Amino acid sequence: MTPTGTARPATGSVTVRALTLLEAFTRAQPSLTLSEISRRTGLPLTTVHRLAGDLTEWGALERDSSGRFSVGLRLWQVAALAPRGALLRELALPVMEDLSQITQENVQLGVREGTEVVFVERLGGQRAVKTLTRVGSPFPIHASGLGLVLLAFAPRAVQEEVLARPLERFTERTLTSPDELRRVLAEVRRSKIAVSDRQVTMEAVSVAAPIFDRPGIAVAALSIVAAADTAQVTALSQLARTAARAIGRSLRPGGWTSSDD
Fold first, then answer.
1. What is the H or E stretch that residue 39 is in?
2. To pair with 169 at 20 to 30 A between CA atoms, which of 105, 143, 146, 214?
3. What is the Cα–Cα distance from 70 to 59, expressed in whole angstroms?
4. Three-state SS string across 125-181, please?
């Protein structure tokens, strides 16, 4: 997608063009006309009409009585089978539910997809503060606690790609200096905990820990998001670290001891 939210003109196979068409739908614009899809993808209207018909027949798209299209339920059913999200979510949910009950705060689970974070699950507690993140939606990797953890343990090439481009600012406290971000990532690798203090909204603090499926390899991260004016970061850090270790062990039973991660 381009910075304006429209897809780049698609070339190549029919499959690539069909996927580009699906990419036109966003949380901000979940319902589109054929003309809107054509403008957002750069595909000719005749091509969009043909692909939308095929995708609707299969169930990847749905069309309402006014002629507008939205993502179909069958596509969601297929996506839910993705092992990296489905198995992780299944194993993590019991731990997340316990953590949500203990803290009464937001508990989030996410994975890295390229240079973004994708949130796999989120549980909201009774004291949950409002967040900008949404399950299934990508989010910039440099600002949230989850993102900082995943970036810290990402391959060096991924880190350098993020550091080389402009870093989006969400609040006055968002890390936008590459040098400062490097320093923070080094500290996250050392402590295995990340604290995003009012970097996404001025109301929230996120405390996150990596989930390792083997020593040193973080496949996901877990975070607790609390109100900035009441968050007890030290206590939340310990809870996040303990919960992440429990999930990691469930991914590889008997794989290593707690001292290994």
1. helix 34-41
2. 105
3. 10
4. CCCCCCCCCCECCEEECCCCHHHHHHHHCCCHHHHHHHHCCCCCCCCCCCCCCHHHH
